[in-house]
Specification:
With about 325 residues, the protein is of the alpha/beta class. It has 2 domains: about 160 residues, Peroxisomal Thiolase, Chain A, domain 1; about 140 residues, Thiolase/Chalcone synthase (Peroxisomal Thiolase, Chain A, domain 1), CATH 3.40.47.10. Helix content is about 30%, strand content about 25%. It has 9 helices and 13 strands. Strands 1-7-6-4-5 form a 5-stranded mixed beta sheet, sandwiched between helices. A 4-stranded mixed beta sheet has the order 8-13-12-11, sandwiched between helices. A hairpin with a 3-residue loop joins strand 12 and strand 13. Helix 3 crosses helix 4 and helix 6 packs parallel to helix 7. The protein binds oxa(dethia)-CoA. The site of oxa(dethia)-CoA (UT7) has 19 residues, from helix 2 and helix 6. The site of oxa(dethia)-CoA has 19 residues, from helix 2 and helix 6.
Length: about 325
């Protein structure tokens, strides 16, 4: 995939927001209904608790409103809404319902690339801006609790609900997106899938085995396009699927875990929401300053992978 063209209209993130359901489900809660233990879940996944509840529309409206407020942008100034989700509330029309409830007057559509969805949507939104849009609201939301088999101990401890959003605004010059990569390997689609209306099926061990490799392949392409190396990264925002996958990815990149954004302990795997939520928490914690290089990198069902290198605040 190409690097961002010099001279194209660039974009920067000017606001962000998250929405987590109120209901907390701890590992101890799961011990009551599943043949599992807090010790197993923490050791094998890094998850201690997760949030369950809400709909894809309601969570998206909350995170989207928070991002608009922080950016200081009124709804009428948004030119497009892209909602990454693998759990739309309806077969179609979820993004338009979010558009209506936020008071936006623009095109609105869902994009489904499983857990890589937010990065796909963010790259998509940069493309809209390069073609003339001024501002795009990008939301990543999943309500995986609705498609999780709560009697299956192989998947139930992993998945949860959340939403994260960013406002992307056009700027002169190249903007923040220095390099990106979108990838897919449909020959591996049987490793992680759900029928429409069905629950999640996963070959966990094989997904784990491939995850680090496909994330690293994608990250290396994005960094090469951006003209940077892992040493230049101030922050890595990986998909939050398993702490051991994040640790292995950091090890392969040669960066210490202090530079990774980690939320999995309190969010679980929230698919399309996982990267924007981790990014927003890092931003709220003051971990990012102007000029920092940030790597977003995800993988998911499909199997898909996606990554992006951002220079925070853009490139003059
Ligand atoms: O967004 C992308 C989504 N998916 C992923 O990224 C998943 C990637 N895979 C993983 O994260 C890990 O493979 C899992 C967390 C799903 C599983 O961890 P693992 O270390 O690969 O465990 P395993 O599947 O090899 O199972 C080890 C043992 C088995 O028992 P035996 O055969 O050794 O007796 C399982 O039956 O752990 C057992 N087990 C459990 N025990 C207690 C599986 N699930 C549980 C459980 N509690 N919840």
């Amino acid at each position: 995939m190409p690097a961002t063209r010099q001279g194209a209209t660039g974009a920067v993130i000017s606001g962000w927001g998250i929405a987590l359901p109120d209901k907390v489900v701890t590992n101890q809660d799961l011990e009551a209904t599943l043949d599992t233990s807090d010790e197993w879940i923490v050791t094998r996944t890094g998850i201690r608790e997760r949030r369950i509840g809400g709909s894809t529309v309601s969570l998206s409206v909350s995170s989207g409103q928070a991002a608009l407020d922080l950016a200081g942008v009124t709804p009428d100034r948004i030119d497009a809404l892209v909602v990454a989700t693998t759990t739309p509330d309806r077969q179609w029309g979820t993004a338009p319902m979010i558009q209506d409830q936020l008071g936006l007057r623009c095109g609105a559509y869902e994009l489904n690339a499983a857990c890589s969805g937010f990065v796909y949507a963010l790259v998509n939104a940069h493309g809209l801006i390069a073609m003339g849009a001024e501002r795009v609201l990008v939301i990543g939301t999943d309500t995986l609790s609705r498609i999780t088999d709560w009697d299956d101990r192989a998947t139930a401890p992993l998945f949860a609900d959340a939403s994260g959003a960013v406002v992307l605004e056009s700027v002169d010059g190249r903007g923040q997106l220095l390099g990106w990569d979108l990838d897919a390997d449909g020959s591996a689609s049987e490793l992680l899938w759900a029928t429409v209306g069905g629950t999640i099926n996963m070959e966990g061990k094989e997904v784990f085995r491939r995850a680090v490799r496909i994330m690293m392949d994608s990250a290396e392409k994005s960094m090469r396009h951006a003209g940077i190396t892992a040493d230049d990264l101030s922050l890595i925002v990986p998909h939050q699927a398993n702490i051991r996958i994040i640790q292995a990815a950091c090890e392969r990149l040669g960066v210490d875990m202090e530079r990774a954004a980690v939320t999995i302990d309190h969010t679980g795997n929230t698919s399309s929401a996982s990267i924007p939520v981790a990014l927003a928490e890092a931003l709220d914690d003051g971990r990012v300053k102007t000029g920092d290089h940030i790597l977003l990198v995800g993988f998911g069902g499909g199997m898909t992978a996606a990554s992006a290198v951002l220079r925070w605040g853009g490139t003059s």
